[in-house]
Description:
Elements: H1 2-26, E1 31-32, E2 35-36, H2 45-73, E3 79-83, E4 93-97, H3 100-105, H4 113-130, H5 137-159, H6 173-196, H7 199-203, H8 209-233, H9 238-258, E5 267-270, E6 278-281
Antiparallel strand pairs: 1-2, 3-4, 5-6
Amino acid sequence: ENDLIAKKFCFGFVNSYFAIYFVAFMANHVNAFGVDVSCPEHKCIDYVEIMIAVIFLQNVFSRYLIHSWIPALMAPSKEAKVELEGDDDEGEEIIAEKKDWEVQAELPEFSGINEEYGEKVIELGYVMLFGAAFPLLSTFALINNFFDLRAHATKVLTTTKRPGYRCSKDVGSWATIVDIMSLMSIMSQCCFLAFTSNALYYYFPSMTDVQNAFLAVAIEHSLLMIKVLMDSMIEVPEPVDLAYRKKDYELNMILERLDDFDPTEDVILYTADDGDAYYGPTREN
């Protein structure tokens, strides 16, 4: 499953961001199939802003279309034709209303939580990777999430079958992907400031190109150092760590007792969060 998540993310990353990176960093330096695609006066920041807005909004509307509007239109009807049986009514049909469980049985299966995570991570990537190039992007993402919350609730409740329960201790590979994207966002934002926009020249107009690149690298290294320091400062609260070690110890003791398990004994396992774990003969409360 982790390999599938990684492959889907890599495909979504290239499919969603390649065009923006190409215009931002490569359009002025390469010829696409012999055609000069460089920006006027080699200033691509305006084109990058337009591309980010268009691609982001296009992804948002296509997602609503695929996951909300089309399933709502294709939802099974609550009415069904029923053919009457009998000598007098043979061959006649009446319109009968389906029961709720009959309608729900005809709904498609839930696509899975990984698809939902993938969409949100790609949307987060637009803000993390291109926020410096188009500052309004975070506002667009916030507004979209207000509507997307209800759209996902409608999808799960009305247009798909009820998903089965699956337990997980965390978000799995997606946490690693978000952490990698946070590193990429630092490098991407600094490259946008140094090589695509004129933001650094605005504050230091007398800088040379070499000094501009050196300043961008210095900012990037500083931000990476701050991130590493913040990650190292995160500590698990002592009460949480103590409770975890206590539960882990109790679990290990129970598993040791299970090695001598006798299925003929009348036993019960108590696992109340507010009490000690107990494994042994049934006892009265």
